[in-house]
Amino acid sequence: MYNTVFLTLLTFNVVYSSNLEYDGWATLTLQHALEDVANPVYTDRGNISILSLRTGSHNINQEPLSPSDITKIKELSASNKFYQLKSTVLAADGTVTIFYSSVKACMLAESELNDILSVSLDYVGRIIAVTLAVASTTTCEGAVVPSSNLKEFRTTVFVRYTDIGPSPDTASYIQKLEREREAKEKGELKDNRSFLAKYWMYILPVVIIMVLSSATNPDAAAGGGGNGGGR
Amino acid sequence: MDYFKSILLEFLIFLLFFNKTFALYEDQVDKFDWKQSYIGKIEFANLDSLKKIIVATEENVIASLNLKNGQIVWRQVLENPLEHRIKLLHVQKEAVSVSGDGHNWFVRGWDLSSGTLLREWTIHLDKNMTSYFTVSENKLLHIAAVPHSHIELSKYHLLSGQNSGKSIKINGPWIKDLTQCTISGLFFACLDENKVKYINLLQEQKMYAYDLSDVGKESESMSILPFKSTESSVILVKNDNAKVLRLNPDGSFYLLPYEVSPSVVSATNGEQNILLHISQMVENNGKYQITNLDTLTGEEIVFTIETNKEFWQPNILCAICKGTACRVLVQTLDNSLSVIQLPSGKIVWTREEALSQIVATEFVELPVSPLDASIEHEFDIGSGGVIDMFKKRITSQFNQLKLLMSGSQTTTNTTLWRDDFGLHKLIVLVTKVGKLFVLDTLTGNIVWSKYLPNTSPFDGLNNQIAALFVQRTARHHPLSPQCIVLMKSSISGNGIVYIFDPITGNVVNVKYLSSPIQQAMLMPQETENFLKPLIIFTTEGLVELVPESAIMDLYSYRHVLFMFNINKDRKSISGYSFRHSTEKEAKATLKWNVDFGPSEVVSYGIRPASEIVHSQGRVLGDRSVLYKYVNPNLIALSTLTDDPLHKNVHTFYLIDGVSGLVIYSACHKRTREPIHIIHSENWLVYTYFNERFRRTEVVALELYEGSFQSNSTHFSSHAISQLPHVESQAYILPAVASAATVTLTERGITSKHLLFALTNGAVTQVPWMIMEPRGAFGPSGPEEGFIPYVPELPLPPEANINYNQSLLRVRGISVSPARLESTCLVLVHGLDLFYTRVAPSKTFDLLKEDFDHGLIVMVLVGLTIASFVTKYLASQKAVRQMWK
After folding, report:
1. Which of A127, B278, B649, B833 has its CA 20 to 30 A from that of B354?
2. What is the three-class DSSP state of B482?
3. pLDDT tens digits, B116-171
4. Cβ A128–B594 below 8 Å, yes or no?
């Protein structure tokens, strides 16, 4: 594994401009704070190396938690505090960026340390954000979780790309207009249906109106008939 | 059948737009709207005759004002003032203006009475040099100065632009500091080593010098200014005292022996040549006086300016005299322009030109009238017993009856009381010079104004902004409403907090912070006095609260308060939490950050805080519900990146303001500004200019949770079960938008309209319905009322909310809901101020104006009478039948 990393290092040492077109790599050093204070002390949690930013393939290397850390997470969780993560990103061009992120400790504990690390890239593949999240539909307000559930981080890394945004779709609209025009021409050429079939929607309302008006005016109709009989 | 379908579709589209024609009737013009035109701070002014003033302003506007009432006779708006400047305004038979960006100078001739462009020609320079212009006998002289070396003089024919001869180089090693140089008539003069050195531009090489030490003056801290007069003169200003130095064509000079104030102009009065200057009196409350000085005799006549208003450092622009009567055009520090009549010293008219540059707007509700307030308090459980309450009720009801009888309940323009429909509001405006205005929405009149000296706005992303917050609305009756303006001190750059009552203009408090402001936000929760505390985040990372006593409120809500800040370099954005605040100190802790690397944030959009989302989902064709993703913490951001391959790349991000999670991102290559973002409910619209196709494109995005709502009671940014499903669609906007926003109504039931201010002067409304991205219909096919995709957005002229009143250089549109659900109040500000109201779903909750009340009463009365008559007849008939 170290070999591969070394190899990628060699191959992509010269790349700086576009990480996606030439495929780049990045190393994330994760540190976490197990005390929710204003200026916390960050301790090592592990590291993640993204071997290919294009495919998103990565190696996660995280040690199991020590018993003291487990107790600290339990305390954070019980007092409804935040678990903070500091990710130091070393990109292929040698730039180092630090990202901070935090989640509710109780949500992390309730999910049994099943967390999501979202690595967002911009359009050339620079890492712009590393965010920790826990997949859950509900939030908790502090929770007590047994230590047996808090042994090891089961992290899922999502590398998320910036897609090309939509642009006005003129081509298909012109095609649609073209089709309509053709259909119209065709329709004009061989519309040899009968008169009634063509204009039934105009005739029908007229008929209905006539029927209705004669129905509402039965006296006049009847009177007319009587006259006829008298002659 | 396809043919008919298409006909049907076209018919539907036709019906749709037919419905959406919002044009006014001719007799409705000016009924709901008003427009005020401004010109900006005046740089050059010329009294053309006794009737007109020709002015050129910092806003690159050439205009003619009526001397009698100050109204604009004509106005011509030139290029963008950020790039171009007006350098010369010369008025003779026509007004000639020279304006440009340093490379290209446009010389334009304007007709004095109509303002039509008579001629235009250009001067093109290869290098960007400091240029001066002057006019001499139908010749335009262009002087380009190179410090420590020479000046280049070129002559052009003023009307035709014909270059007369080669440009001449005049040696000028004495030209050192161009800020200490000026041009007056045919003289180019510089202040250098206790001497005024000058040349006559027509005599070319000869340099004259006037030694200041001869008259016992030192050039230190002295400045030289041009002086407009019949003879070429300059003013030498030192410590607020000035002297006029007259330069004669033969090179000799004459220093007028009178000490005047720096704000001095000359006016000819028949044979007399007089100087008019303005100064502040030491006694008499520091009132200002104008001194009329006869240059020949030295005779002085002093006039006191009669005004009750505050007069901030007035400066005389020009004056015209006829006998003893003079009219003096005066501009003050707060950009208000007045004409003062002498000898009476009275102000004839005033124009508030500060309103041409508005940096913050807010609509404020009016308090209820005393009568309504008494109704509200009728049932207050007071200290008194039953008899007291009875007495209170009887008196208040008697008063109500009395008011009803006298008919004074109807709101007039002068009363600042709330009306039933909430159409009468006040608009608080903060201007760039630091003057506050409060305008009445019904009339557009200024209710009160206040100048805050030495304040300036903050630098926003692409314009200057001030922060204006409504801390308490007028709904809490005995307590007066309260607003806060945040500005920065133009001297130290530190924050200034100005707290005031928007209705009366009374100052509640002014606070001077000890460091610059980085970010400020209003807490959504109210204190016990119904005040929303303001959280100010300073550049030193400290948190200040207004009022300071609100610390306990902040402490109790510290877990649910978050703030975001686009950092000063515009390359990153950070989120802060207040969870580490204590009961004594507010503290912001960094919670998340997003680093855009080389990209620069150019625009952002958040949902209006007061917006209510009426329906939580959309019903699909198969009667299932697609739930909206309504995240109140969502931040929309646009960044621009300089890319060697694709020129500028515009990336649009959606970021959760609590967790910092990037929810969505999309990029557009080869694009550039202007970029506008509109953010409302569960959808967003952004515009950008596509350089490849050279057109403005509009992208509409809609966010949906799916067929299940993760949490129906409240939204939580912590619980992320799945990312929203984003639907998007792009359109072409066949115009360039200078500002964009969306209508806002009280309950959110009314459909939404987008408002785009276009560079052609129109403000047009586009129904959101025709932009909704409904790309994939799903299994049930297109929904009811589905509008087929047309790539170009239609902009019918009937959709212009400003009908034929062009609004130029629009900087922003602000909206506010009325109490009528159908109506939204709109203020468009820029060089013009335009207020109107729009009803996106038409006024469904309002009777038509021509509704016939008389007819309906007659019909009702008639029906009632008829029913009684028939009842009587029927009973009679029944009786008769029974007798049979």
Report:
1. B278
2. strand
3. 999 999 888 888 778 888 888 888 888 888 888 888 888 888 888 888 777 788 87
4. yes
List C-alpha distances in Å: B402 to B196, B380, B393, B568.
Answer: 77, 22, 14, 60
Examine the domain organization and report whether A137 and A215 are in the same domain: no
Q: Can you give the pLDDT at residue B779?
A: 52
B614 pLDDT more than 80: yes
Quick: pLDDT tens for B285-305.
778 888 888 877 878 888 888
Residue A9, domain member (yes or no)? yes
What does chain B come to in residues? 884
Task: Say whether both A129 and A70 belong to one domain.
Answer: yes
Out of A101, A104, A124, name the one closest to residue B592 (CB). Answer: A101
Distance of CA B73 to the CA centre of its chain: 23
More confident position, B614 or B218: B614
Residue written as token pair 């009720």: B393
The pLDDT value given to residue B296? 78
- Assess whether A193 and A120 both reside in one domain: no
In a domain, A154, yes or no: yes
Provide φ and ψ at B34, rounded to 5°.
-145, 155
How does pLDDT run across A66-104, given as a tens digit for each residue?
888 888 888 888 888 889 999 999 988 888 999 999 998
A127, A160, A193: which is the final residue of a domain? Answer: A160
Q: Is the pLDDT of residue B832 over 50?
A: yes
- Cβ partners under 8 Å of residue A85, min gap 6: A30, A31, A32, A33, A45, A100, A101, A102, A103, A132
| Per-residue pLDDT reduced to its tens digit, B456-469 | 999 888 788 899 99
CB spacing of A126 vs B597 below 8 angstroms? yes
B641 vs A122: CB contact, 8 Å cut-off? yes
Question: Which residue in the set A17, A162, A169 is minimally distant from B666, CB to CB?
Answer: A162
pLDDT, position B384: 64
In angstroms, the Cα distances linking B744 to B428, B547, B601, B608, B678 are: 18, 29, 26, 9, 12
**Residue from B9, B564, B595 to probe the interface with A (highest A Cβ count within 10 Å):** B595
A231 is a domain residue: no
- Asked whether the predicted pLDDT for residue B263 surpasses 60, the reply is yes
The answer to whether residue A91 sits within a structural domain is yes
Whether residues A156 and A180 share a domain: the answer is no
More confident residue, A41 or B775: A41
Chain B contact for A75 (CB, 8 A cutoff)? no
How are beta strands A163-164 and B662-669 bridged, if at all? Answer: parallel
pLDDT, tens digit (0-9, with 9 covering 90-100), for B467-477: 999 999 888 87
Percent of chain A with pLDDT over 90: 15
Distance CA B803, CA B609 (A): 30
Task: Kindly identify which residue of chain B lies nearest to residue A167, measuring between CA atoms.
Answer: B730
Q: How far is residue A210's CA from residue A213's CA, in Å, rounded to a whole number?
A: 5
Determine whether the interchain pair A118/B667 forms a contact, defined as Cβ–Cβ distance below 8 Å. no
User: Residue A123 is nearest to which of B644, B649, B710, comparing CB atoms?
Assistant: B649
One-letter identity of residue B226 = P
Contact B499, B508 (CB under 8 A): yes
Complex ipTM tops 0.85: no
Tell me which chain B residues have a C-beta less than 8 angstroms from the C-beta of A169.
Answer: 730, 789, 791
Contact assessment for residue B426 and residue B364, using Cβ atoms and an 8 Å cutoff: yes
Of A160, A184, A211, which residue is a domain's last? A160
Q: How far apart are CA A118 and CA A159, in angstroms?
A: 6
Looking at the fold, whether A104 and A199 belong to one and the same domain comes out as no
Same domain membership, residue A177 and residue A156: no
Q: Are A100 and B652 a contacting pair at CB < 8 A? A: no
Domain count along chain A: 2
What pLDDT is stored for residue B20 in this prediction? 45
Q: Which domain holds residue A108?
A: 2-160
Q: Tell me: do A140 and A36 sit in the same domain.
A: yes
What Rg, from alpha-carbon coordinates, does chain B have? 33
Q: Which residues pair with A61 in a beta bridge?
A: A47
